[in-house]
Design goal:
Layout lengths: L2 H15 L6 E7 L2 E6 L2 H6 L1 H11 L2 E6 L7 H11 L6 E7 L4 E6 L2 H5 L4 H10 L2 E6 L6 H12 L1 H15 L10 E7 L8 E6 L3 E4 L28 E3 L5 H4 L2 H6 L6 E3 L1 H20 L8 H9 L1 E3 L6 E4 L2 E7 L7 E7 L4 E5 L23 E5 L12 H17 L3 E5 L5 H14 L8 E4 L2 H10 L6 H8 L11 E3 L3 H9 L4 E5 L9 H8 L6 E4 L8 H6 L4 E6 L2 E6 L3 E4 L9 H10 L6 E5 L3 H15 L2 E3 L6 E3 L2
Bound molecules: zinc ion (ZN) (2 copies).
């Protein structure tokens, strides 16, 4: 059935289901959603069953929107909103979403803005036609979130037309013939980095993840030139599991080379990945290397993102439905589940997963409606890859910081901007509040504060405990007074030379460049200071060499080579990882429901993936495979 026919048929179905007195003024595709425009929004709201029956009849996600004709123009609407909402609510921002007919009103006190029984909201709706949505002002403003919001507003018309095009493509005719489902492994197998897999059927092609692998010369990229990928615009969709660059770092290259289709990911993944991608090209530039894309391609990526919340099943191709599930790894991280054909096959790709409740997130989900093939990570899948629990990690950190501060030294903690730094911040804040460690300033240098701000912009992605603490009790650990943002180079200079005790959290996490190096150079010669590693140190990085007992640091300054003996205490605290350890990975497979027929293992050093595969086979008698990059596995 062609897409025009689909719309004709949709019109018929809508006519049958919707009562005559409700006027329908238009039906359109918008990306994966069928949008129905009406002048009687209230009638729909009052009768939830109609929407459910429409979705069932159309077999699509359905959105009911107000006919644009009944919406006040945005300037008048803004004036009215400011007039209706009591000043005590303290409006901090208002933005309109033309795509949904929704107006988001950001306020300090949501209760006041909503009014008793939603009275204020109802008045707004009746006056301006727009559906008001009250959003609590995030406690830390994020530059990234603000800029992306502004950009999407600017291009809303253009995006609307593009979404229609995407909708028509999803609803195109299926090809007749024998059905099949395959997975081509394009990167990130028998290695960590450049994750990419292609799911293909007779009708469609979907790429999952498109990461980079850091190398000393030019970085490695997935095998995107493989014949099953090309031409690049033959892809129906791209899905990104999470923002880390080993999953998203090469994505903008596809837009550089003419891909014009959608990227599905969660909203925080969209924001975090553009922050990390911008940093990636900045670092490349700083090191005099050519970056594979420019900032315009990152903007293009944002333009083509279709954000999906967890648990929302969405058609993304004629024969594929996607659902994202919590992966517990970093903010917005997801496992991607695909339902292929009409019950033909179900495959899930884990991305990176944490199967333990952390200070920030709930553990990854282990339940799927159906599951035959699972592609999963094995970063810590080796025989001896056991890690301490979160509690033990906090205890370890406490002991090391206490003894370091007892001798009035400086403590330096190299961190990754996204994920670990927020957890370490929370633990330090707690230890300080309970007086288990002395109170000293904690300086945050690099992108940490911006990444933290994005965390507070998406509270629904944090675990319930932290969400409550921030929004119900008004205690935001990230806003504690001990935390101080390092704003300028001069600021950094002062901290480096200040003899008073302090703790510094700085990027990059493996001592591979970034502001952390300024502190390290200055402090490493003094046995009174301590460096604490809390994250994985990859082979070949300075972090790994220091951990192994490197004796001397050499760097160039004003054209001269300077060497400093390394005397500072070198400590490592395990247990802060965002990855599941061997035990958690095995438990995850054990608890999986339903039990998959086959598990394809990647995202691990070769020996670890092989060890994990053999354990899965022996313990659970599930077919397990460790393919090479470029292998294709027929699943059905
Ligand atoms: Zn990751
Ligand atoms: Zn990864």
């Amino acid at each position: 059935m062609a897409s025009d026919e689909f719309i004709d048929r949709a019109k018929k179905i809508v006519k049958e289901i919707v009562p005559l007195e409700i006027s329908i003024t238009g039906i359109e595709f918008e990306g994966p959603v069928v949008v129905i425009y009406t002048q009687n929004l209230e009638a729909f709201a009052a009768n939830n069953d109609i929407v459910r029956r429409l979705a069932q009849g159309l077999r699509r996600r359905v959105a009911i929107r107000p006919d644009p004709k009944i919406l006040a123009d945005t300037e008048r609407a803004e004036t009215e909103i400011k007039h209706i909402i009591p000043p005590e609510a303290e409006i901090t921002d208002i933005w309109f979403d033309q795509e949904t007919g929704e107006v988001s009103i950001e306020v300090m006190s949501p209760g006041v803005a909503i009014g008793p029984k939603g009275k204020v909201l109802n008045e707004i709706k009746a006056t301006i036609g727009w559906a008001p949505k009250i959003v609590r002002t995030p406690p830390i403003p994020s530059k990234t979130v603000g800029e992306i919001r502004g950009y999407l507003k600017m291009i809303s018309e253009e995006r609307k037309n593009w979404l229609k095009k995407v909708g028509r493509k999803i609803n195109r005719d299926r090809i007749s013939g024998e059905v099949y489902a395959r997975a081509s492994l394009l990167g990130g197998f028998r290695e960590v980095g450049r994750s990419a897999s292609l799911i293909s059927t007779k009708d469609s092609k979907v790429l999952v993840d498109c990461g980079v692998k850091f190398a000393s010369g030019e970085d490695d990229t997935p095998f995107l030139s493989a014949p099953e990928v090309l031409p690049i615009d033959s892809l129906d969709a791209i899905v990104i599991t999470h923002a880390h660059l080993d999953h998203s770092g090469i994505l903008p290259v596809l837009y550089k080379y003419g891909y014009d289709g959608p990227v599905y990911c969660t909203a925080p993944t969209r924001d975090l990945m553009s922050l990390l991608q911008l940093d990636y090209i900045k670092v490349a530039f700083g090191e005099g290397r050519k970056s594979p894309y420019e900032s315009t391609h990152i903007r293009d990526t944002v333009k083509h993102c279709i954000p999906l919340p967890y648990g929302n099943t969405t058609d993304i191709a004629p024969d594929m439905r996607l659902t994202l599930h919590n992966a517990g790894h970093i903010l917005g991280s997801a496992m991607a589940h695909f339902h292929i054909g009409d019950g033909l096959h179900n495959i899930a790709i884990t991305g990176d997963i944490k199967y333990e409740k952390t200070w920030l997130f709930n553990p990854c989900t282990d339940k799927f409606p159906r599951l035959e093939t699972l592609i999963m990570e094995s970063t810590y899948g080796g025989h001896g890859d056991y890690q301490p629990s979160r509690r033990e990690a906090a205890q370890g950190l406490k002991e090391i910081i206490s003894s370091a501060l007892a001798t009035k030294g400086h403590v330096l903690i190299p961190v990754f901007a996204v994920g670990r730094s927020q957890e370490v911040m929370m633990v330090i804040q707690q230890l300080t509040a309970t007086k288990e460690i002395p109170e000293v300033p904690v300086y945050l240098d690099g992108m940490i504060m911006e990444a933290t701000a994005i965390h507070t912009a998406y509270p629904e992605y944090l675990n319930s405990h932290l969400r409550n603490q921030i929004f119900q009790k008004g205690e935001n650990p990230f806003l504690a007074e001990i935390f101080k943002r390092v704003e300028t180079g001069k600021n950094r200079e002062e901290i480096v030379h200040n003899p008073d005790s302090c703790i510094v959290l700085a990027t990059a996490g493996m001592l591979n460049g970034g502001p952390v190096m300024e502190y390290f150079k200055e402090w490493c010669g003094d046995a009174n200071n301590t460096i604490i590693f809390v994250g994985f140190q990859a082979e070949g990085t300075m972090g790994r060499r220091v951990q192994r007992g490197m004796k001397e640091l050499q760097f160039s300054h004003d054209g001269k080579t300077i060497s400093v003996p390394i005397k500072m205490r070198i400590e490592t605290v395990d247990g802060f990882s965002g990855h599941s350890d061997r035990r958690q990975l095995m438990n995850f497979v054990h608890n999986l429901h339903p039990r998959p027929e086959r598990i394809i293992i990647g995202h691990g050093e070769e020996s670890k993936s092989l060890e994990f595969a053999s354990a899965v086979y022996k313990k659970f008698n599930i077919e397990s495979r460790v393919p090479f990059n470029l292998e294709t596995i027929r699943m059905k």
